[in-house]
Amino acid sequence: MNDIETRADCISEPEEFGILVTGYNRPGHLESVLSSLQKQGHTDKTHVWIDGTQKRSEYADVAAKSVQVARQFPVREVVETRGHLGIEKLMLDALDQMSQRYRSVLVLEDDCFPLQNGVDRFRKALAEVADRPDVYSVYGHPFGTEPENERDFTRFQGWGWAAHSDQIQNLLPELKRLFMLTEAEYLDYIATNMTDDIRRRLHRTPGRDVLNVLKMFYSWDSATSFVTARRRLLHRRTEPKAVVNTGIIEGIGHFTQDSQRLRNPPLNMITLEEAWDHYDKPLYHRSILIIGHPRGGTMFTAKMLGQMGFDIGHERNGADGFASWMLTVDTQNAPYAMHPIAENRRNLQWDNLILPTRDIAAAAPSVMRENCYAPPSYQFRRDEIRKKFGLDLDDLSNDFERAVASIVYWMRMAYEMKPDLVFRIEDQPEKLQDYAARLRPEAAGVTLDTNPVNANKLYKGVTYPKPDIDPSDWAALPDSLKAEVSWYCDTFGYASPL
């Protein structure tokens, strides 16, 4: 049993980041949350707080089971209270302790199931608001009523959230004061201090209206909504979502009857049995994904489709699709991720996979320049090619060999994805247009500008000349690399430079 009253006394320098998980009478839900955190490698910073039963026999077995579940995981701490505090006091006490121990805290009740990479998404969002005193929290379970292109929201979300500890500590005294009022005093205080501005800030989630709760009783999350709205604080959602709520539970809690209403915005709930189906489920769906090699036509393809009316983002989000040479591989370490889709290919589900190709004789000098002046690009390809083929580009003899090897091995990986369309950017734009017309018939009548794009790419604001390559360079390639060049030219229909 932990002595929670004196724990803060032994704390010296706060650690960077901690995770609070609360539980009581849902051991299965608690196990799912802790399993997800363990899978993501974060149990070492997780503190589990479980409300006690005050020796009430009707809850003793299930509460004991929750404690047993928590102790099966290598968590940092399990706090088991003897008395039955209720979720309001348990949360306030836990937030007080955790915000003293850590500089930022992620809060998960036992029905807040963290998705794959969810903790990392919370930490990224926390970093985004580190210098923004106007943002109280970040949240991982979107309401679905937020403006699509605005991540800041005026209404607090308690189903999976995180905050910097100074923000928590600034709010806690008021939350505790309100908690200590009688219910009548609390409701009178809310009614007296409610303003039109607060109403506007909170009335953002029809179907889950916190204004109604504020008229009935104190709860820690509705009180947090009120106080943050009164102080004009914002809440920023993670991108993409990091949590799914598994609170549809027959016979327990507020949401005991499964219905479409619970599954739609602003609730977006599921059952516990569905949790792991959502764990690594793609978070985005786009019609088109364009892959390839850097300097190999991904931007050209995106621009061509743009002329035909498709919104294709080149290494950024687009409503119809996404173009990124980095998504040729399944990894979490993409160097130029300007959108969560680019962070991890598993975030995206697509319908049409397009692979543009470029004459290797023309591409090699461009890639030599890319390798030299874009080190993250080169290192990313080097790492992925080494993992896949056991070849280290750094072991090759010169910059030309490294460029050629990067092109052929990277394009092997792209071709293994079985693209729906492969086309040569030099002489087959009509293949792209014909394919696009199958998706959108009006694309057939567009007159395309097929001039090269980004031919003189800037590297940190500077244009560098391409190196000159002559036939002797191709002739000097190792036999193994010549074989790969022959595969490339035969597969994609180019004349061999060998």
Short structural description:
By secondary structure, this protein is of the alpha/beta class. It has helices spanning 27-39, 57-71, 86-101, 118-128, 165-180, 183-193, 196-202, 210-214, 220-230, 260-263, 275-279, 298-307, 340-343, 360-373, 375-389, 399-416, 429-439, 471-475, 479-492, and strands at residues 15-23, 46-50, 77-80, 102-109, 112-114, 135-139, 152-153, 161-164, 234-237, 243-245, 284-290, 312-314, 321-323, 348-357, 421-424, 458-459, 462-463. It has 19 helices and 17 strands.
Walk me through the topology.
Blueprint: E1 15-23, H1 27-39, E2 46-50, H2 57-71, E3 77-80, H3 86-101, E4 102-109, E5 112-114, H4 118-128, E6 135-139, E7 152-153, E8 161-164, H5 165-180, H6 183-193, H7 196-202, H8 210-214, H9 220-230, E9 234-237, E10 243-245, H10 260-263, H11 275-279, E11 284-290, H12 298-307, E12 312-314, E13 321-323, H13 340-343, E14 348-357, H14 360-373, H15 375-389, H16 399-416, E15 421-424, H17 429-439, E16 458-459, E17 462-463, H18 471-475, H19 479-492
Parallel strand pairs: 1-2, 1-4, 2-3, 6-9, 11-13, 11-14, 12-13, 14-15
Antiparallel strand pairs: 4-8, 5-10, 6-8, 7-9, 16-17
Helix pairs in contact: 1-2, 3-5, 5-9, 7-9, 14-15, 14-16, 16-19
